[in-house]
Amino acid sequence: MQTLQQQQQAFKIEETERKDSLLEILSDKYCRSILESIMYKPKSVIEITSDTNIPMSTVYRRVQNLHDNKLLHISGTITDEGKRLFMYKSKIKGMKSKFDNGQIEVELILNN
Description:
By secondary structure, the chain is α+β, with helices and mostly antiparallel strands.
């Protein structure tokens, strides 16, 4: 019997500043909870708040930070009432980091 192993796409980060930024973001429990909540299905801030029990203002701040660091796909619609509704989905499934001999390696595992 053969087993199929799903190939994960990974992206190695080269810039030191970007590595530091990603390590800082993923060390934040709220950012990790948000990414986990939106890994497989796009969600609005209200849905994320409901799923994670993180205060809405905190979700907005963390989503902005994740967006600024290019870790989110954003899509939007306009409701029947004319309001804009943004949906967020994680661009990453995980991260691998390694500290060896004074060097930091960071690799993002992309979310297909």
